[in-house]
Amino acid sequence: MRFTPSDIFQNPWRDSSSKHTQTRAQEFGVTGWIQNIAGEKIEGEAQGNEEQLQKMVKEIKTGPPNAVVVKVETEDIPVVEGEKEFVVKRTVR
């Protein structure tokens, strides 16, 4: 699943979202990645079973404390074989 939270208000979300999302993904047993993109965008991919992904989407829609996430776009993508963890990728500028 590819996810793109958009219409995010309050910069603390952007500053803390990657680590927060990584921590929650690890708790849920989800693999994949998250990355901050220039222009205050965030994107990522997550893999897991249906229950794990439902929890992950709910968490992404909620965001970390002091954040307001208005919209999250998701799409199904092919499974990446051999993925073992959820990582934070370097910010793209």
Describe the structure.
The protein has 93 residues and is α+β, with helices and mostly antiparallel strands. The chain has one domain (2-88): 2-Layer Sandwich (Alpha-Beta Plaits). It has helices at 11-28, 50-62; strands at residues 2-9, 31-37, 41-47, 68-75, 86-88. The longest helix has 18 residues, at 11-28.
Q: How would you summarize the topology of this molecule?
A:
Blueprint: E1 2-9, H1 11-28, E2 31-37, E3 41-47, H2 50-62, E4 68-75, E5 86-88
Parallel strand pairs: 2-5
Antiparallel strand pairs: 1-3, 1-4, 2-3
Helix pairs in contact: 1-2
Q: What oligomeric assembly is this protein in? A: single chain
Which sheet architecture does the biggest sheet show? 5 strands, mixed
H-E order: EHEEHEE
Helix percentage = 25-40%
Q: Please count the helical segments.
A: 2
Query: Which outline best applies?
Result: globular
Radius of gyration: 12 Å
Give the strand order of the largest sheet, numbering strands 1, 2, ... along the chain: 4-1-3-2-5
Q: Which fold does the CATH topology refer to?
A: Alpha-Beta Plaits
SSE class:
alpha+beta
